[in-house]
Each structure stands twice: as C-alpha cells, then as structure tokens.
Amino acid sequence: MYPVSRTRSKELCAAVAGQTILVTGASHGIGKITAGKLAAAGATVIMVARSGDELEAAAEAIRADGGIAHAYRADLTDMAAVDGLAGDLLATHGHLDVVVNNAGRSIRRPIDESYDRFHDFTRTIDINYLGPVRLLLGLLPAMRERGSGHIVNISTWGLRMPPAPRWAAYGASKAAFDQWLRTVATEIASDGLTVTSVYMPLVHTRMSAPTDFGSVPGLTATEAADLVCHAVAAKPVQITPWWSGPLQAWTDMTRGPTQRVMARSFGRFT
Fold this sequence. Notes:
The chain is an alpha/beta fold. Helix 3 (52-64) links the parallel strand 2 (44-49) and strand 3 (68-73). It is globular. The protein is built from nine helices and seven strands, in the order αβαβαβαβαβαβαβαα. Strands 3-2-1-4-5-6-7 form a seven-stranded parallel beta sheet, sandwiched between helices. The two termini are 27 Å apart.
C-alpha cells in the first residue's frame, strides 16, 4: 500500500556529495538513520536534537565511519534558541544546501480526555509547526540569496485521508506546517529553491511506541530513511501513496458521508 522508493547508492552520492545538509530530530529513529546514510554518501550532515548525549553519540558514530557530522543541541520549541541556532549554522557553515525537517511530536488522544490538557495542543504546534517555521525564517534569506536549496518536510499520510478520531492535536499541527510550506514553495521557486513533502505512513519508532501499533503494518525507520534520502536526491514535489489522490478527491466530494463513517467507526471502537 506504500511502495518504498530507494535511491541507488551511486545516485545518492552524485546528488549529495559535498553538500551541507541539516537534519532535525537527528538523535533517534528516522533522523539518525537518514543522517548516517547522507554522511556515508559524502554529505556534511548537521544534526540537531534536544537530547545532547544521544545526539553526540550518533554524530560520533558517523565520524568513526569516516563521515562528517556536526551536532547542535537545540530545543525547537524554544524560539529564542531557534533564532540562535539559525545564526550559528550560517556563521559556522556559510550555507545550507538541504534542510530536512524531521523533528516532531505525536499525540493520539480523544477530545474528552483533552479538556484539561491544552498543553497537548501547544506542545504539538510548537514542535510540528512554529519551531520549523521559525528556523526556516532564519535560513531562507541566505538560501534565496544564494539561489539554491532544497527543503524536505516529513509530514504524515493522515493529511491525505479523512480526519481520523483521536488525532486532533497532531493532525492540526502537521497540517499547519504542510500548508505553510506549500504556500512558501510558490514564492521561493523563482529563487531556485525546491520543496518536497513526504507524507509518511506509520513508522515503528520511539515516537510511535507509546501508542500500541505493534500489530499494525508500518515501515521500519530504515525504510523511512530511504524515502527521505530519495526526497533529497530526486527532489519530487511530494512522496505519497499512489491511492491518496483518488481518496482525497472522493473524500472532498463525499465529505458528509465520510465524516459519518468515521464517527460511527469511532463509536464502535470506543
């Protein structure tokens, strides 16, 4: 249901060798493996995450294998820290060729358990939307002036489907950044910048572990990292399931019936 695109090693090397690539959420899971693959292909990877010890260990593992990796500990929900990070990256590395927006937070909780948990919405919007927006606002001027650059956003295939119960906080935050980036893409294209949105399916990682998805089919972190590397190398506008377009069109045409189906399903499962 979700064919995995994988760029050949030779093609990946040709695309990224000598480039400077920023990967957020790089201490674990998809981000960590993606950084390793890009470094092995000859890129200089800049790894950003909150967890300092794990981040430095991941960067050191890349360096031990002969790659070039720089670790920057930063909390992307701290807007002042994000501004400082953008400035430090440009001052130290001069420019960025690719930005991979991978850091994120997932919450699956019904609304009747969220009445006194407004922080569920603020913490998802901070890391999934406001943080990456603030970071790109700091990086885009230099990328546009240079006349080249590529942005890869790790989104969710949930945005290509009817809204599902329990995903209000997560879905809204991912949709906000998806819409923001797709809008910005129309403005920066004339400056030579490109954007890829990866509508990722379920990936069995540390982030998804708190929700019991053990028996649900999904990608491994390595398979997901292959998709990200393909996005970096091939630069398609989007990576999404082949069936998501027809499903989205059907959903738009049958919004009422579709919503009733989802509501009945939620009631049965509840």
